[in-house]
Amino acid sequence: MKLFHSITDFHSTKKTILTLGTFDGVHIGHKKILGRITQNTENGKYESLVLTFFPHPRMVLQEKSEIKLLNTISEKSRLLKETEIENLVIHPFDEGFSRLTAEEFVSTILVDQFHIQKIIIGYDHRFGRNRTANIDILIAFGAQYGFEVEQISAQEIQDVSVSSTKIRKALLDGNMALANEYLGYTYFLTGEVVKGKQLGRTIGFPTANIQIEEDYKLIPKNGVYVVKTVIDQKEVFGMMNIGFNPTVNGQKQTIEVNLFDFDKAIYGEKLQISLLKYLREEQKFGSVDLLKEQLNLDKKTALEFVENL
Questions:
Q1: 2-164 adopts what CATH topology?
Q2: C-alpha–C-alpha distance, residues 85 and 108, integer Å
């Protein structure tokens, strides 16, 4: 897949079959729509293209938006690369772009830049300045400029919407089985390993502290998880705590991973941590010894889960 960081960076001699949207999560509902794009390329006659935006439009247009996304922009790019889409355009979204009229968007971007043959879009999609243009206006533009418009049905759009809503709720409830079922893959966090207080090392559970740079990334429910990562091309399992470490009076949320049978120094490395199962809620213990006792039980449960994968 070719990646472009601006609409004007894209150039092709072929006409395109495209769709546009946020595609947050790149989940099973999105993949059905993306599959429609690739099926319409007629074995290479046209090129498939996905147009998405960053920052998320709500981050720009809604001053107090606290939207949390399932993917960072780099995570979304990696997930889309795993599909058969040939071109991904991530265009910087700003207030200037939002002021384009519907016809300016169609004529200068879809027609002049993308040489559009066909757009596959939701029946409820709205575009142009103040989102005033709807699917009927897009169809009229298609007739005027010579491209096709295929509507994604209300049921399919509802499936995508329901999937996204259920995934977010499941993650905030700690229901990893449901979240991962709707995603079609295991939800993951990507962050750099940084130095923490190293308290875990003193009780036999050294942890890698994961720092996630993007504050818009959705962090699942606080608690203990069974996790997996890949280091030096090898799968490494472990358990992770998201929370405030109440037993030692922690003051801020941290993400700490204890990797099983692993003792290599990995400070500064970027890890992708896949969340396999939620084990329990974070709790405050009466002493560090009681915490250590519980961590031993957690590890036993986690290893049993891993053995049955």
A1: Rossmann fold (3.40.50)
A2: 23
